[in-house]
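Weekly modeling sync, notes
Attendees: S.R. (lead), two postdocs, one rotation student

Agenda item 3: backlog of single-chain predictions. S.R. asked that every request posted to the team notebook include the full sequence so nobody has to chase files. The rotation student volunteered to paste the first one in as an example of the format we agreed on. Action items at the bottom.

Example entry:
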Amino acid sequence: MPHPHYDSSLRHRLGRTLRTPLGVTALTACLLVALVAVLGPALLGDRAAQIDTDAINQGSSAAHLLGTDQLGRDIAARVVVATRPTLRLTLLAAVIGVGGGLLLGVAPAVVGRRPGRLITAVVGVLVAFPGLLFLLFLATIFGVGTTGAVFAVGLAMVPPMARLVQNLTASVAGSDYVAAARILGVGRFRMVVRHLLPNIAEPSVLFATQATGGILVAFSGLSFLGLGVQPPQYDWGRLLNEQLNRVFVNPAAALAPGAAVVLTGLMFGLVGEVLAQAGGRRAPRAAEPGPPRPSPAAGETAATDDGALVRARGLRVTFPGGRQAVRGISLDIDAGEAVGLVGESGSGKSLSALALADLVPHPGRVSADTLRFDGADLRADPRLGTGLAMVFQDPMASLNPALRVGRQLAEVAEVHLGASRARAAALAVDRLGAVRIAAPERRARQRPHEYSGGMRQRAVIAMGLMGRPRLIIADEPTTALDTVVQKQVLGLLAEVREESGAALLLISHDLAVVAQVCERVLVMYAGLIVEDLPVGELLGGAAHPYTRALVGTAPTMTTDPGKELATIPGRPPEPGETGAGCPFAPRCDRARNRCHEDTPRLTDLGPGRRVACWYPVGPAATTSRTVEATS
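Predicted structure, as returned to the notebook:
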């Protein structure tokens, strides 16, 4: 069942979307059409039915805005009155199509394997049949008239709706929670209602809303052909049929019903677009109030750039339910500086980096008191262009397997630098050569699966170098690589920094990698930065107990092979589990009462050093480890 906070968030996003120009337009159109459908027959019903033999087939005039028909009836009044039956029949056909599509769509997931395969095959055959011919075939079977047209149009919508629901249901039915529900003996009906339909509701509603516009056109088309509404009843399609032979004499009379069909179809499309924006990442974001910020502590001065390439103050990443994965961190990265970001899984390292690049996945929300990159305020304009390059842990997730590598690199130059196709292709080959990929001309014509893991990582780095990045964010760039390739990639990053002057933010679990590459280290725990120190002090002079615990779990060349590796007791807190006090206190052997009651702030501990701890480790407790021991 969807989380109540998610439902609330969806309502808020819908409300914000309705305040955009698109939302206002869609809402205004819906209200206008609804008013015409409700009030039109009451206000103009008599005028639309009044026969005047003295005013037969007249043109537009002050008395008859769109003229009159062959019986002297006012055409404008008839178009208005036809709004209600046209919408009623359209929505009725939509209910048939959506209901039938849902039934056939979820059936393969709840019936036996053989009946499910049969239903899937039948739907596949119906979808392959041309839609217009299928509609006319059904209209012929059900016969001429309103009822037959409603069933024909509604059933014609069933196959595409069922195919969509089948595809969506198949992706949900394989989830662990569905398997667990089956093991617990949840009934088929309850399985559909509680586990399947809520998880496919959003795309199904969007499809149904936009398909309703097509149903309107299809139903009007049947009436226009004489297969739908029959006299004396009428809808827009019937009115268009009656006035078509006078299109050259009185164009307005013939075009008005057609314009009503087109504009109302566009209204349904706008409604679907509004729902799509409200349900997806394109929804306009409202500023989220964060927790009260304390006055700046030592080392957290006012947010002036001071030459810093990146400056963040109070950076937060919040997910539905108020769960904060990044809880108001502050950091600076100077131009050309290499900074390491370390911590256990779930500490918020990758989300912090993604927040800087405006890449936090939906439904996460990023807020900050200050967020600047190269002098620009990212809160006002998050576009970074080619000033920032991202190197992800899995290069296959960054490369499209269907496109050649050179083409993917060239696209960056075409979009961001405005280069011609030929110039961009030449630049892509040059960048592949710059990252030490042999035979770059040939390799540019290959696809990602033809590259080794190390070459794919190099290609992703080359993609970042298509522009002139000021900052390179490398998120676990060597995790999946062997030690030889890892050394090559790290060496390549060092060369890139030296040649381009770019700053580097390296995210890693491997302290030895950070010690080799970086100049400064930020240690994160539970969404907070708990220590900031020079890399030379990481392995021997860390002041925070958590940092020392991380160092203690990493074996070195001098570690006794027969000695059991050290571990950190307990587990890191989940977002939303942290309360008052130091988040590391439940796992810390130095914790005292104050640690459980008051949250320490990041404060200066010496030149270039900051720590968030009430009782930091003193110099006397330093170990004899050195950076060289793990290198």
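Discussion: group reviewed the output briefly. The radius of gyration is 33 Å.
Action items: rotation student to repeat for the remaining queue; S.R. to check formatting next week.
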